[in-house]
Design brief:
Elements (H helix, E strand, L loop, with lengths): L10 H12 L5 E10 L7 E2 L3 H9 L5 H10 L4 H7 L7 E4 L5 E2 L6 E6 H6 L1 H24 L4 E4 L8 H14 L3 E2 L2 H7 L9 H5 L4 H11 L4 E4 L5 H17 L4 E6 L4 H14 L6 E5 L4 H9 L6 E4 L1 H4 L8 E9 L2 E2 L14 E7 L5 E8 L7 E2 L2 E5 L2 E2 L6 H13 L3 H4 L8 E3 L1 H15 L2
Parallel strand pairs: 6-7, 6-11, 8-9, 9-10, 10-11, 15-19
Antiparallel strand pairs: 1-5, 1-12, 2-4, 3-5, 3-17, 12-13, 14-15, 14-16, 17-18
Helix pairs in contact: 2-6, 6-7, 6-13, 7-15, 10-11, 11-12
Pfam families: NAPRTase, NAPRTase_N
Protein name: Nicotinate phosphoribosyltransferase
GO molecular function, one term: nicotinate phosphoribosyltransferase activity
Amino acid sequence: MVENSLLLTDLYQLSMLECYARYGMDATASFEFFVRKLPSRRGFLMAAGLEQLVAFLEGMHYSNEELDWLRESGLFAASFVDDLAELRFTGDLDAMPEGTIFFPDEPVVRVTAPLPEAQLVETRLVNLLHFQTVIASTAARMVLAAPGRQLIDFGLRRAHGAEAGLLAARAAYLAGFAGTATLAANRVFDIPVVGTMAHSFVQAHDDEAIAFERFARVRPNALTLLIDTYDTERGARFVANLAPRLAREGIAVKAVRLDSGDLAAHARAVRTILDEADLQNVRILVSGGLDDRALLSLCSSGAPIDGFGVGTSLTTAADAPALDCAYKLQEYAGRPRRKMSEGKVTWPGCKQVYRHYAADGTIAGDVVALLDETADGEALLHPVMRAGRRCGLLPRLAEARAHAATSLARLPAPLRRLQASGVSVRISDGLRSLADDMDRARRGS
């Protein structure tokens, strides 16, 4: 369900490839994907999307239909289009594992391949990595804001397209969400799927209590009832009256969901009603316009809420929907390269990120260094592909999810409290020296 057409690219990528072909520019190039600066209110980001990137690189080719379209378009020389039929990814990929916490100026992915190959993958690579990283980073904040609570992705209907909704479910689960309402995400990624009912189901019945009873008999497993269509507390009383009858038939009400009003106040009132009916095991789930700040507020208030359904703010990353990220040439034909555009200067050469930890196991700081520098610390980029083939099996989603949980647990306390204080990222002496040497050479001094 994830589209991998090589036509999912910008026109200028093929325009450059046609020029490279004309002048024989096919030496080895290295590009790195990184983020220049953090969005407001963000103190960290979480890497995601690597699995889809690897699948894209492995299957990279033009279909006969796409080649026919390119010929008919008249945009490129026929001989160039003919050559595209043989194009495959034959290069190397190094990357931070999915679920890794990272910071600005740190390469998250490095592609090393013949220049045309490394150039062509840019658009889809950024598209895949950027989106899931945005969502995983947003979801991670929500996980930190609601410790110990179940978080469910409700966001497909507000996502910017079907692929976005599917990949958002994946990124959220990677970051620590417990499940999704999106059926396709269960089929494709085996993410636990969770669902209740809509208000329209209750409205379609003349009697709210009958609506609850009918739903319970047809969908008895993991039964959750939406109780705020008309009056939240009245709905809770209907559940309190219905639950004992259902229990005698072996049907257990597992949870009730609230979707409107003062969620904290309603949750307290509903908890009292349920407890008085000896329904202490019935959980309270809430939804309705929630973001990380709302989650933090509700949890800090002590409201008796066991889980949250989060939609719009998750799948659109409403407070920070885009990253200032880039995929830039770092080395070509054995020589380091450096972009000097105002406000967009890059650090040259191929790099590694080394992480250091404090005595308590939390992240103390990172160092970005050249590959040929000697450095201590945990190296964060690992070989993923060599000569166009995987080095081994990628971690399964469950394993990446466990890595993400470990990464979040290692954040310094201020970042776990969602404060925007960053972790120190130091540029190594060797990298600074290389940049200075290149600057002097460019100036002719």
